């Protein structure tokens, strides 16, 4: 769980801080008629640095597992304006000409550094490529393909599961190349809009997947030389924020977007609730209910390793959404996969 600081607007308005970290992964919500305590793997309060979140969330282990051939996913979840994009990518104002201060970089950039650092220290030959998609109004669009984003078909096969047809994959060798790719596609092509709760509200779910192929060559007494190949993935999912249309003042196209966002998050929540039940009591998991749950099917209930960072606001005005996120995350914590 990550708790963002109160904003200037919230402080000036006189909002109370209703969320408090008690240490040891415990968080307490105290407000009129609401008094609840939750336990998680880790809780980062408003003073936690980006580096503390990277090291304390287990993100470094996730990168190492991806190099070892596992399918790894991290997703940021929470109300609109709760700090999801900042946690994953850092400040929104950064660009190629105006990079962010190193201390403010998010989980993505830190993971890329860790990935390249690990590949050098292990002496393995890593081949890295990336694909970047967004789900906007229930359409899957490629953020890396040139020209205006167009809808791509989502298919299913027995061997691959759900996959996106004709998506572009770009090879990269340096940290700068993937960081530039991320900034160009993420900040310039992804759909965002302003509303009452967030000036830069993400209007789509974004999925950046790093494909890692490693070849470790081991030399045996001549002439035998063996080459072991592993393929892993590291997927970053920046979910659009859940929002109450009444609070955001959305109408017209913004309202349609909000309804599509909320519908897909509801489908995701439903899958998580069913996956949280003991294996013997599980019924059919409805992954086909939305494009988002189809693309996350393997991460949620398959053979992958998944980290969820739930972002919340400490403001009394956001109390209901904060409680909703905490209950959602509590259910997600009970889901077990078999990596």
Query: CATH homologous superfamily, by name?
Result: Kinesin motor domain
Low-pLDDT parts are: 193-201
* Radius of gyration (Å): 20 Å
Percent of residues in beta strands: 25-35%
What is the overall number of helices? 10
By secondary-structure content and strand pairing, the structural class works out as alpha+beta
Organism: Hemiprocne comata
Protein name: Kinesin-like protein
GO molecular function: ATP binding; microtubule binding; microtubule motor activity
Subcellular location: Cytoplasm, Cytoskeleton
Notes on the structure:
This protein has 339 residues and is α+β, with helices and mostly antiparallel strands. Strands 1, 5, 6, 7, 8, 11, 14, 15 and 16 form a 9-stranded mixed beta sheet that branches. A 3-stranded antiparallel beta sheet has the order 2-3-4, covered by helices on one side. Strands 9-10 form a two-stranded antiparallel sheet. It contains 10 helices and 16 strands. It starts with a strand and ends in a 6-residue tail after the last helix. One of its GO terms (cellular component) is microtubule. This is Kinesin-like protein. Keywords: ATP-binding, Cytoplasm, Cytoskeleton, Microtubule, Motor protein, Nucleotide-binding.
């Amino acid at each position: 769980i990550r708790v963002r600081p109160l904003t200037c607007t919230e402080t000036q308005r006189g909002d109370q801080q209703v969320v408090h970290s008690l240490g040891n992964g415990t968080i307490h919500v105290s407000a009129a008629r609401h008094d609840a305590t939750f336990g998680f793997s880790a809780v980062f309060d408003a003073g936690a640095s980006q580096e503390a979140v990277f090291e304390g969330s287990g993100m470094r282990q996730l990168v190492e597992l991806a190099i070892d051939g596992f399918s790894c996913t991290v997703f940021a979840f929470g109300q609109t304006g709760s700090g999801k994009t900042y946690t994953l990518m850092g400040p929104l104002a950064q660009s190629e000409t105006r990079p962010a201060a190193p201390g403010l970089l998010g989980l993505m950039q830190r993971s890329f550094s860790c990935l390249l650092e690990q590949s050098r220290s292990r002496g393995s030959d890593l081949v890295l490529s990336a694909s970047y998609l967004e789900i906007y109004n229930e359409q899957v669009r490629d953020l890396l393909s040139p020209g205006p984003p167009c809808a791509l078909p989502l298919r299913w096969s027995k061997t691959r599961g759900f996959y996106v047809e004709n998506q572009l994959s770009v090879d990269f060798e340096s940290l700068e190349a993937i960081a530039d790719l991320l900034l160009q596609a993420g900040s310039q092509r992804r759909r965002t809009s302003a509303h009452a709760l967030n000036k830069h509200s993400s209007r789509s779910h974004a999925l950046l997947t790093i494909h890692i192929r490693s070849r470790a060559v081991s030399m045996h007494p001549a002439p035998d030389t063996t080459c072991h190949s592993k393929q892993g993935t590291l997927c970053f999912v920046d979910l659009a924020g859940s929002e109450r249309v009444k609070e955001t003042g959305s109408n017209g196209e913004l309202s349609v977007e909000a309804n599509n966002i909320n519908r897909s998050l509801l489908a995701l929540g439903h899958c998580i609730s069913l996956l949280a039940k003991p294996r013997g009591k599980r019924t059919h998991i409805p992954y086909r209910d939305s494009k988002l749950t189809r693309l996350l099917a393997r991460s949620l209930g398959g053979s992958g390793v998944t980290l969820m960072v739930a972002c919340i606001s400490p403001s009394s005005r956001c109390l209901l959404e904060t409680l909703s996120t905490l209950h959602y995350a509590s259910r997600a914590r009970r889901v077990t996969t078999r990596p």
